Amino acid sequence: MLHKFRIVLVNTSHPGNIGGAARAMKTMGLSRLVLVQPEIFPSEIADARASGATDLLQSAQVVNSLDEALVGCQLVLGTSARERHIPWPLLEPRAAAERCGACTQQGGEVALVFGREHAGLTNEELQRCHIHIHIPSDPNFASLNLAAAVQVLAYELRLVALSAEKDSVAPVHTPDPDTQPVTADELEQFYQHLEQTLIDIRFLDPERPRHLMARLRRLYGRADIERLEMNILRGILTETRKIARQSIT
Ligand code: SAH
C-alpha cells in the first residue's frame, strides 16, 4: 500500500527540509517524493539532512507544476496550518490516513501536498485538493516545520498500512473500471470544461468570477465521482456547449 502514496512538496525554499522530509518518509516506509519547483535541488544540504535516505532524493521526481505532480492520483489531500476563506472538507491526520488507505485498497493512488515554509499553499493550490488536513497543533503556534509535518502524516499512513496488512484476508479482485474514482488530472479537465461551458451560457462572467468555480470544485470534490459518472457529466457539457453556440450564431 505504501508505494501508492506520494508526498508532494511545493516550492520548498530550504533544501534541508527536502532532506528532512525524505528521512521522515523513509523511516515510515514511504518512497515516492515529488518536488514542484524546489528553489534549490539537488543540494548537499538536502543530502546531509536525509542521512541515509539519499536514495529517495535521487529517485525524487522534479516537476514544474502541481498539476504534473498529481497526474494519476484519485485522491489529493492538501495540508494547511491555518483555516482558509472557503471552508473545505477538513480532516485530522488519523481520519485522513484512513481515507487514503481506503482509496489505495480500491486501486487508487494518493497524493499528500505540503506547502512553502513561508506561505503554505495558495488558495488555488488548496482548491486542487479533495480534502484538507490540519494537524491539530496549538492555535497560538500552529505551524510545524515542513519535515515535521511530513513525519506526522507519514506515521499515520504507516499505521493504516500496517493494520491493513494484518487484516488482509480478503481476496484482491479486479476493480470495475467504470466505478473507479476519476484521477486529479481528469477532474481538472472536467473543471475546465465546466468553466468554459458556464462562460458560454453566460452563467459565469469571467470579468467577475467571484468564488463560483471554487464552490463548484468543493461540491464536485465531495462527490467521489466515478469514471462512468464523469463521462455522463462531460457528455452533458459537450451538448450544452453545442446548443449554446447554436443559439449565439
Ligand atoms: N506560514 C505558513 C506555514 C507553512 S509551514 C502558513 O501560514 O501557512 C509549511 C508546511 O508544513 C505547510 O504548508 C503544511 O504543508 C505543513 N504544515 C505545517 N503546520 C501544519 C499543521 N498544523 N497542519 C497541517 N500542515 C501543516
Automatic annotation (TrEMBL):
<dbReference type="Pfam" id="PF00588">
    <property type="entry name" value="SpoU_methylase"/>
</dbReference>
<protein>
    <recommendedName>
        <fullName>tRNA (cytidine/uridine-2'-O-)-methyltransferase TrmJ</fullName>
        <ecNumber>2.1.1.200</ecNumber>
    </recommendedName>
</protein>
<feature type="domain" description="tRNA/rRNA methyltransferase SpoU type">
    <location>
        <begin position="5"/>
        <end position="155"/>
    </location>
</feature>
<comment type="subunit">
    <text>Homodimer.</text>
</comment>
<dbReference type="GO" id="GO:0003723">
    <property type="term" value="F:RNA binding"/>
</dbReference>
<dbReference type="InterPro" id="IPR004384">
    <property type="entry name" value="RNA_MeTrfase_TrmJ/LasT"/>
</dbReference>
<dbReference type="GO" id="GO:0002128">
    <property type="term" value="P:tRNA nucleoside ribose methylation"/>
</dbReference>
<dbReference type="GO" id="GO:0106339">
    <property type="term" value="F:tRNA (cytidine(32)-2'-O)-methyltransferase activity"/>
</dbReference>
<dbReference type="GO" id="GO:0160206">
    <property type="term" value="F:tRNA (cytidine(32)/uridine(32)-2'-O)-methyltransferase activity"/>
</dbReference>
<keyword id="KW-0963">Cytoplasm</keyword>
<keyword id="KW-0819">tRNA processing</keyword>
<comment type="function">
    <text>Catalyzes the formation of 2'O-methylated cytidine (Cm32) or 2'O-methylated uridine (Um32) at position 32 in tRNA.</text>
</comment>
<dbReference type="InterPro" id="IPR029026">
    <property type="entry name" value="tRNA_m1G_MTases_N"/>
</dbReference>
<dbReference type="InterPro" id="IPR001537">
    <property type="entry name" value="SpoU_MeTrfase"/>
</dbReference>
<keyword id="KW-0489">Methyltransferase</keyword>
<dbReference type="InterPro" id="IPR029028">
    <property type="entry name" value="Alpha/beta_knot_MTases"/>
</dbReference>
<keyword id="KW-0808">Transferase</keyword>
<keyword id="KW-0949">S-adenosyl-L-methionine</keyword>
<dbReference type="GO" id="GO:0005829">
    <property type="term" value="C:cytosol"/>
</dbReference>
<comment type="similarity">
    <text>Belongs to the class IV-like SAM-binding methyltransferase superfamily. RNA methyltransferase TrmH family.</text>
</comment>
